[in-house]
Amino acid sequence: MNGDLCKYKRIMLKLSGEALMGEQGYGIDPNIQDIIADEIQSLHALGVEIAIVIGGGNIFRGIHGAAKGMERVTADHMGMLATVINSLSLQDALERRNIYTRVISAIEMRAIAEPYIRRRAIRHLEKKRVIIFSAGTGNPFFSTDTAAALRAAEIKAEIIFKATRVDGVYDKDPLVHKDAKKFDVITYLDVIDNNLRVMDVTAVSLCMENNMDIIVFNLNRTGNILKAVKGEGIGTLITNKV
User: Fold this and answer.
1) Domain 3-239 belongs to what architecture?
2) Pairing state between β 182-183 and 101-105
């Protein structure tokens, strides 16, 4: 292990559920999952302490269910369960690479995941186990972005890495607008004031209050997670320190 190569020693990696489905439109693409697991393995080999939060949008999104008439609390609980499925799948991929991994659930389900206990989670990190936080915060009306911000603050992560389909934060959707402008550095307040929607307002506000920097980068480019942890300046940095 050579942690000296890395700028950050303890990180929170936020993955969207959509990242796991690749081009198939639903569910988990094993090839994409293996690529992500390989990237995480490269960090683990350097001694980085890794916490992960995964969304569930590749299976079910609570807000979409609510938009179609489902009761919001029920829809959000279903979305939380979708994150557990994704977490267990990623755990399997990591453990096939001989990386000890713990799935920690905000909703108690002891047969398949540990309950969230902050000190135990930190101890797992100290023992170089990868931890995957599932079921969001355990409460409806809160996104997995907010769960990532909350857990990152609780475990004293140094930074949040938000893995997306684009290579940073833009003033408008670069997948739709060819003239979209990319920011190399931007403040939390600018993200909120300009409604940039890279993360929900609750998550961004929580990071701002705790001085938790966020780096937004493209997950689909091989090696980007490692580059981000080494501090190579990819993507967009969201920070108070401008």
Assistant:
1) 3-Layer(aba) Sandwich (3.40)
2) unpaired
Domains in the chain: boundaries: 3-239
What tens digit of pLDDT does each residue of 152-201 get? 999 999 999 999 888 999 998 888 888 999 999 999 999 999 999 889 99
- If you count them, how many residues does the chain have? 242
Distance CA 153, CA 174 (A): 30
Q: Which residue has the tokens 């186990």?
A: 129
Assigned token pair, 109: 């389900």
Q: What is the DSSP letter of 42?
A: H
Q: Kind and range of the H or E element at 104? A: strand 101-105
Integer Cα distance of 48 and 57 in angstroms: 27
* DSSP string for residues in 101-130: EEEEESS--TTTSEEP-HHHHHHHHHTT-E
